[in-house]
Write a structure and sequence with these properties.
The complex is a heterodimer. Chain A has 6 helices and 29 strands. Chain A has helices at residues 16-22, 58-68, 77-98, 125-129, 485-488, 494-502; strands at 117-123, 133-139, 145-151, 163-169, 182-186, 190-195, 202-207, 212-216, 224-227, 239-246, 253-259, 263-270, 275-283, 307-312, 319-324, 329-333, 351-352, 355-358, 366-371, 378-383, 387-392, 400-403, 409-414, 421-426, 431-435, 445-447, 456-461, 468-473, 477-482. The longest helix of chain A has 22 residues, at 77-98. Chain B is 38% helix and 30% strand. Chain B contains 2 helices and 5 strands. A 5-stranded antiparallel sheet of chain B has the order 2-1-5-4-3, sandwiched between helices. In chain B, β1 and β2 (29-32) form a beta hairpin. The chains are: A mainly beta, B alpha+beta. Chain A binds chain B through residues 74, 77-79, 81-86, 88-90, 92-94, 96-97, 99, 102, 107, 492, and chain B through 1, 3-4, 7-8, 10-11, 14-17, 22, 24, 30-31, 68, 70, 72, 74-75, 77, 79, 81, 83, 85-86, 88, 90, 92, 94-95.
Chain lengths: 507, 96
Amino acid sequence: MFTDEVLDSVSVQSLWRKSQQAAQESKGCQTRAVHSAEAVVQTVCKTISSTQTEPQDQETEQLLLLLQNRDEPEPPGPRGFLQRVEDMVIRELVNNAKSHAFDGLLVNWENYSQQVSCLHCLQHPRAQEKGFHVTSVSWSCTGSVIACAYGRIDDGDWSTERSYVCTWNLNRRGLHSKQADLVIDVSAAVTALCCHPKQPALIAGGLYSGEVVVWDTSRTHDPILAQTGMSADSHREPVYKVAWVPLQKKGEFGVLSASSGGRVLLWMVDSDQGRFVLNAAYAIVRQQVPHSSSASLKACGRSTVGVTSLALSPWDADTFLVGSEGGLLLRCSFSSQTPAAVPSEGQSVMLRAPAVFSFRPHSGPIHSIHCSPFHRNLFVSAGTDGQVHLHSLLQPNPLVSLRISNSYVFQVQWSPTRPLVFAAANGQGEVQIFDLGRRSPRAAATIGQGDAGQAATCFDFNCQNPHLVAVGKTDGTVGIWQLSTDLTEQSSRENSQLEQIANQVAE
Amino acid sequence: MAEVEETLKRIQGQKGVQGIIIVNSEGIPVKTTLDNSSTVQYAGLIHQLVMKARSTVRDIDPQNDLTFLRVRSKKNEIMIAPDKDYFLIVIQNPSD
């Protein structure tokens, strides 16, 4: 049915290819011959001439400069102006330097008061009944509220007495000296107090039990904002000093606490959870204290160095000063990375050894250190040996040593307005004010009567109203004193005198 | 340019001079021997003071005008030489 079929191929002839190939032709052309000729030229006579630019005058030169360089905008104006006024100004300067017209002229813008007087005597009857001493006073950052902490300074034993923190607002009309505006009940004796430098309602306190607490006085029902509680991180010994420290982030503050267990801890406040978070921990151990050439360390049973006082430097955010129970005075650094030679007790943060430099030791516990707000290298320290030493941060030996009392010195502080003035509270119930500009080593003024039974344990200058001082005593009273004007007004030479004292070299 | 510097050096060399500022008529400092923040502070405050002093003098007598202003304080003295386009402020401590 199906068979293979073979067909012949079919071809189609191309029409266009043939026609192109069919029509080819070739053509050629040639140019005509080119005519050329030669000719020669030579110069007959020569002359020489030259040109030179004239020096330009100043005005046009400056205008040209102005137009050319936009980044040199010195207008020709001040020159002319200075030419006009220079002679007159120099004449006036010379006359002023020679003139005696204003010698001895004293202008009083404010009321001049000659005396030191007591404005208020604040007491808390319940604390006085129990025989509490005032352990710490602190002015709030606004300068109108004074906060006082009650406790005992002569305690050796562990005690579980409850105590108080009281605040009075001095600018309120209904100020009642026997009734505090706010009384906070505290579970243990309060040994340290510090008001927040920016927020007037916050107060940080250190307790005898080793706890650190921050109270918020704007809260009515429960003023405790945060407390450390008894954790592995917290202190085991009484906290003798708390201070607010500015942290890296601007506007935030942490609490630095120092206790006689040899620990200095930096806490951050976690107000949502009502607790503290340990940010950095420092432990001071005798073996890691740098030896200065004149110090002789006696062998001591305990290796920890109990910290009794602390001071922050307002000039250098990395430095803080520490004073100990044995009289050691150390300069420490926040950024030190050396691990401390203490067995770790399960802290959340590694303990570091902060001591960088050691000054000449006192012969007794150091109760108070304060850095000068007017000179970056100066600070004063005072302790139970009755002496106040003025140190420079750069030298181990003190620059000036003043014996101011036969009893203990509990606190020493620089005046916030006069660079050469500092005050010291002694065990005889007085706060003495010393002026380094005077020749005599005696006090320039004394607050309080000398009373051997009562010691003045603490005081604080009011930075907003520099003529007010609050003094706390062992009889449980806080006195608010007003200073005379010559103790609070700066004179023109004081800074340079302070500079001279600082540049002395101690023997 | 060099003349301005020389004049300023001559004034700075007088006894007790602590600083010199040249401020233009809008209160912007043009030349100064003090640090930046103090210069800006002085220029702003003293410009307002000079305007006030000048208007005081001219209100009292319209034919009169301010030629020199001196402000003496406890710690130093500020001398101001005003002009149409610029002010020269010199701070001197005469007891230095």
